[in-house]
Amino acid sequence: MNDDTDVYFVYSMTDRIKKFAEQKASGSTFLEISGKGLAAGEFAFPSKDEQTAIGSMFKQLDHLITLHQ
């Protein structure tokens, strides 16, 4: 991750990242994937402005969930 990536946007992609990791992971007892294997995944990222807008929506949802708990 770098300065051109919004943390909350990446958080919104966790299901996609998890699916990719599970498909590429190996192991008989525990599934494992190396950092290099995970880095080989190609994920489409919109512009920083779009990431920020999407991330902001998830941040607001997070805040609302916290308020209602």
Describe the structure in brief.
The protein is built from four helices and no strands.
Describe what this molecule looks like in 3D.
The protein is mainly α and 69 residues long. It has one domain (7-68). It is 62% helix and 0% strand. It has helices at 7-12, 14-24, 35-39, 48-68. The longest helix is centred in the last third of the chain and has 21 residues, at 48-68. The radius of gyration is 15 Å and the shape is flat. It starts with 6 loop residues before the first helix and ends with a helix. The model has no long low-confidence stretch (mean pLDDT 87).
The total beta strand count reads 0
Order of helices and strands: HHHH
Oligomer: single chain
Number of helices: 4
Q: Briefly note the structural class of the backbone.
A: mainly alpha
Helix content: 55-70%
Morphology: flat
Residue runs with pLDDT of under 50 for 5 or more positions: none
The number of distinct structural domains comes to 1
What's the gyration radius in Å? 15 Å
GO molecular function: DNA binding
Keywords: DNA-binding, Restriction system
InterPro entries: Restrct_endonuc_typeI_TRD_sf
